[in-house]
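Thread: Modeling a multi-component assembly for a lab meeting

Hi all, long-time lurker, first post. My supervisor asked me to bring a structural picture of a complex we are working on to next week's group meeting, and I have zero experience with this. I have the sequence lines for every component (1707 residues in total). Could someone generate the structure of the whole assembly? Inputs are pasted exactly as I received them:
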Amino acid sequence: MAISVAARLAARRALEPLPLLEGDQDDGTLNKTLLGYVWRRPGKGWLLLVGLGLTGTALLTVAVVITVAKGIGMWGNNIPVAWAFGIINFVWWIGIGHAGTLISAILLLFQQKWRTSINRFAEAMTLFAVLQAALFPVLHTGRPWFAIYWLFPYPSTNRIWPQFKSPLMWDVFAVSTYFITSLLFWYLGLIPDLAALRDSSSKRWMRRVYGIMSFGWRGSARHWHHYKIAYLLLAGLATPLVLSVHTIVSYDFAVSIVPGWHETIFPPYFVAGAVFSGFAMVMTLMVPARRFLRLKHVVTPRHLEAMCKIMLTTSLIVGYGYLMEHFISWYSGNAADFYQYANRRGILHGPFKSAAQDPYIPIFWLMVFCNVVVPSIFWTKWGRTNVYVMWFASILINVGMWCERFVIVVISLHRDYLPSSWTIYKPTWVDLSLLFGTICFFSTLFLLFLKFLPAVAVQEVKELRHELDTEHERHELPEFSQEAIHPMELEVGEEDEQEEKLR
Amino acid sequence: MPSLKLPIVQAHGDERAQWRSLEERRRGIAAEGEFPPGAAEVGTTSRREFVQLLGATVAFAGTAGCFKIPGEQILPYTRQPEEIVPGRPLHYATSMTLGGRATGLLVTAHEGRPTKVEGNPEHPSSLGATGLFEQASILQLYDPNRAAVLQQNGRPRSWREFLAVQHDRALALRRKDGGAGLRFLLEPGTSPLVADLRARIRTLFPNARFRSYSAVSNDGVARGAQLAFGTVLDTQFDLSKARVIACLEADPLHPWPGSIPAMRAWADKREPGPEMNRLYAVECALSVTGMNSDHRLRIRPSQLAPIALALAAKVGSGQGLLAPLTPVAAKVRLDEKQQRFVDVLAADLRAAGRAGVVIAGPRTSPLVQALAHAINTALASEAARHRKSALHDPDDGAAGLRELATEIRSGTVDTLVVTAVNPVHTAPYDLNLATAFDAVPNSIYRGLYEDETSKRCAWFVPATHPLEEWGDARAHDGTVTFVQPLLQPLLNGITEAQILSAFLGEGDKSPYAMLREYWRSARNDADAAWEKWISDGFIAGTATAPESPQVRMEAVAAAALAARFEVPAGALELNVVPDYRLYDGRFANDVWLQETPDPVTKLTWGNAALMSPATARQLGVDTRDVIDIGLHGPPVHAPVLVIPGHADGAVTVSLGYGRGGAEQNAGGIGFDVAPLRRVDAPWGGSGLTVTKLGRRQPLAITQEHWSMEARDPALDMDLHDFEGRGRERIEDARAPVATMHTPWDYSKVQYKWGMAIDLSRCTGCSACMVACQSENNIPVVGKGNVEKSREMHWLRLDRYFSGSEDDPRAIAQPMLCVHCETAPCEYVCPVNATVHSDEGLNEMVYNRCIGTRYCSNNCPYKVRRFNYFNYTYDVTDLEKLRMNPDVTVRSRGVMEKCTYCVQRIERARIDSRVQERPIAEKEVQTACQQACPSRAIVFGNLHDKQHEVTKKHADERHYYVLNDLGTRPRTAYLARVRNPNPKLT
Amino acid sequence: MSALFKPWTNTAFRLVLFGLALLFAGGLIAGPMIYVRSPLYTQQQDPIDQPVQFDHRHHVGDEGIDCRYCHASVEKSNFAGIPSTAVCLNCHSQIWNKSPKLAPVRESFFSDRPIVWNKVNKLPHFVYFNHSIHVKQGVGCVTCHGRIDQMAQVEKWAPLTMGWCLDCHRNPERYLRPREEVTSMTFTPGGEKEQLALGERLKEEYRVATRQSCTTCHR
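Re: Modeling a multi-component assembly
Sure thing. I ran the full set together rather than chain by chain. Output:
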């Protein structure tokens, strides 16, 4: 039998429960609301935050200078824990840097309408996160001044090449490629908006500046044609990177033989974790931003909910990863491996009691709480729609993902093969200021971005609105489509009936 | 700080260059030497410095790599000594004396500067090996803290002035009363030359008196012999003749002066089989010997005498020489465990007969010594060798000091000459020696450092280091041994002989002249044989003839009867021991020894109050808690270190710490135990009071984890087990593991280097660690960095405990790079800084390393070490003379590890190829192998079927550590097999 | 309102972009790579002043004194050896013993203070080069030090880069010569082909096994 209208309604609702744009918008209103704040004088709050950010950045500089000048000894690292905060922060930031490309590229290819309002935002976030990450690979080496040029393959007078078997070598390429691609992608997307800024700016010198930045964009059909192609191509190019970068980062560990690193599950589990933390970070930034920049009408609960769903999914994958690790460690019957995970859990028995006092056990359980328990709140509609809930959750998830990297890097190393070398790692003030400093540096960059560039891809939003309108006019959508009526107007009972019918 | 500029040192641009590293040039940062080697706080940044750093970082970023090669000079000789070929080291025979016992050495010199100490293979008490002290002495030679100025009450004086003043004064004393006011307090010595000088001084000053003193004294042995034989004899033990060995608080398996031959002989009889010897240890604190014993009985010090008595009675069992002891032994009450141990041991000794021996340590009471002598005589033990003691004053303990102190207080002493090492610090507190010395009008102290004693003496004379002086001494068996200088005294040192000759009014006579004259007068073949003696380093066949004295049983029995054994129940006992690393504190400024972990506790940079887990629980303290310990005197603050295997109800502390001298590195390290020692009880006693202070203190321990966690890196099994299931364990641990790598093909190359380490022979004494440090210019990182576990030792000794906490089974395992054929470190290095050589070495290229530290993470043996700081940037010019020019000094940010002493391989390779011959079997020895007293380490060419290493690699005990990882190590370990007594297991 | 940019700005803009690209490629990559290969960096061909105006042209070229007379340890040691002052005076106590040019030498001899020569061929301090083995295997002095007999003031002749060393270690036959010809300044087997033939032969004869393991030079 033919599916009833009501059934279609139900199906449609299930798919698009909330509007993508709220209120009746036209290009003018969008320009005003989305570009307007760029012209506004910076507010006190903004200045205060930037001030704090810069202070933190200064601390970062201090930490970096001391590290370079005095040596890695200024960190808490030792033997066997030769990698610690440096690598943890690197992996954490690079992971956070994943949401951007994912949203802009993959969702574009899948034609997810809801991506438009948040992609610019996410891309910028990515860029700044990768910038933080890029700080560490060189900084954590003992002799950065050599690392800078010995890591690159070029015919040197020594007649030696780098060692391409080493995952660290792959890292160099993966990360730099990722950074460049994201940069291009982000900037390409910016061009039309920069042009819009140029046109709407009052001062001539500003017009010139934005003019140069927008590469003389005039919005002609030809421009748009090329633009679209380029954008799509870059999207296609960026898509594999989302997977490749963190896969290769995971190889840094998986390729080694350290118990707790040497695992085939790492690539998928790292990529999922990366997307997880990436979305969490977008969420953390987006929720306040959309409030203070008055973007509620373009960044609607619909977007937030979609992100929550993705976080929920990825958290499940990550949780599965944890489970597998521990299962395999028992299943493999390898003493070192078993000990490794038993020691993380702090649940030991038999000859292994000795490690029951391992000081890092709480960090493991905090990780499990933040990355597995907390996100499960997104199973509930309430959790997915309440901004406060999702904001706090996203922060906890970021913490959790940092802990995950700590667990992998430090806990694995400090209990490796020969018990004679086992020891404890304690971070120094330099370690801590590196972590805190990068966070501040990141926020500073982000605040500047929010102030001087359109945080939302205006032209894409306009386009979206246009699409929706045309769809509407051509009656491609039934009159009860998401733009026409607000689903909240339907009462629950009716919905249930439709469900009945469906079955 | 004195810095030395001999033309000879700089004679050689190339060589001189080599002990510098490229990065030293970048020392712009932190140029002022903020942290001395071994300072606790390496790597703190002052605000002032920080400003410099900012600039420096810019420099780093900018000028990395593209700098001009700076100019260098070459300073040739004006007249080149014909024996010196710049770039080729020379070797000289000499010796070093400790506790009056000389160990023959072969010292390597580059362009006239000694750089490495090895044992003299011909010398009876070295046999080619060396202990920690000999190895580390080279660092002491170049110690910038060494005293350089002769002083009178702090005012610089010349040697001539000293001679003049002392000579007049001495004449006056002599005229007055034949030198009744003249006293000498000498370091225990056996030097024939000094003996002669003493005799001549006595004839000039009939009323002068000589005494010797050392904190690690020999007087117990002397008294014991006196009691047993009625005459003072010195006893050595030839363990090659022993099948059952019982050690009563004795530690023959650590290279104390003169005990290297014992270690070698013991190790030679550890091959599994019927001939294998069996070692019993009865002791309070777990010692190196205890770690290697087949059976160990842990007892409080006060229980030793009763056990010795019971043992003697049991061995005698009513008849023969020991019969008189049976009634006396009746009063001894032993608990069931001790009784069983004694019964089994006695039975085993009786069964062994002439192949049985009991060794009583030098710290034990005369009675115990005498009982040991009695047992050995009853058994007609072939292992015990009695000789007339070669020491000038065998009674060199604190008792002598007490007499001296009373004499001083009675005001009879006018001139006191002290060459004993730092008595003011080491003397028991109840003597209050410091104030006594203050009372001496004319006190003279000769020492390497301006220490506690020099502060109390009017005159201070800087001493020569053994490598700077002409002299002689006797080996443990009495063999005459020569001391030959390798260089002029760096810091105006004066020898002991010179000081003594000052009182003979012989004016300024050179030590060489003295030595030469004495021997010319002493032996008529001197002129003919002199060259040979000096180049050999000793006179062959001058060992003292062994004697076979009678035991005065009735005296021993009487002493046993008189002895009172009962101790107040539950009273805590103190056990004082000489330190494994600092001896009596004379090596406290030697940072190599400070940073070498104690063989048993793995503690560096300090001492601690050792106690058993049970005792710690009972006192409610734990490792790192600070406690107050007192014994009839002012209490001392000590951090607790809980160590399995220690006797319950006792606390062990070691000598040599808590120094207050001018030594930069020794100051503030550990605590001084002098307040716990008394003249009549120098090695402790009962009634120790302990109070917990509620503070904690960091301890620089290099190994926190005791258990092997079921990974069995060090295989350790009993003989019967080895013949049974144990063999399977070994075979599993060497079973080939599948690999995806295509194995390297070594068939084309001439050499295939490999190493074998025999855990049955290794006692864990740690001499190899210091040898490695000396050979490979390994930096010292300081207390703070050891606490952060950043020590740099390429070769470490892992120590594992298994079994019960109270009576654990301990094993030491030397762990160094095993040069895997499929090395995990190699493929993870992004810049090819660690690669595989065609001969199978796992090479580390410092100058290519950028310090990602990934190789260390991926090394399952954790033998790679990282320069977290530039540990060598503030090395003084004087210390630079010590560096081995054949090994690059690593800069900061660089990974390093054992290279199988590749510099020795390459030298041998080039020499052999220039002479167009293959490398000979013994031509390449690694530093650790060469130093090892028990020959546990073997290195060589695995292609050579006749080579010892190849045989060991085929031995039925050989296995590979962490074999199942498939790393295919080139270093094979030989499982340790113990020989316990079935009746006790 | 007037146009924001004049037409020519397009060209300017493109040029700037192109320039930036060029600057990056040239300045950061090609430039340094050329620099480290140039004498500017390797310090080849710049004569080094010495305390004594010692002229190899005269001693080697005219007098034909063998290199080993002064650089005596070249066959025994890693270090070729700089002659001690006494060696100079072996001859110059007789001839030119009044020459002011030799004043520093006499001064050094009588005051027993070394003459401070300036190093010409500097290797990094982590490089362990050994003269004796190279001489033994038939590597001529000229091969690395150039025509000393034609240098008024000795200068660095070879770049002494690692690549340059490996060049010979990878195919020694291109450079080997008979042992007796090692110190000859003028020896030549003839052309390229002869050299290869000779090299191959000597490689067999001297059992030359050049090594390329890192620890051969870096320890």
